Amino acid sequence: MLELLGLAWSAWKLSTKRLGPVGGVVFALLAVVGFVFLRGYLDENYPSLGKRLDGLV
Length: 57
Description:
57 residues; mainly alpha
């Protein structure tokens, strides 16, 4: 759970300057949802890549 919070914080901080605070929140939300779906897809179809992704985050 904390890794998703860290991902959201990083995405928000990086996108706030370009998109504004509200755009940064939307971008961070999309980044977290995309990461969760990607991790689930990789765990089901490519388990070794899923483990590597978890190791990176």
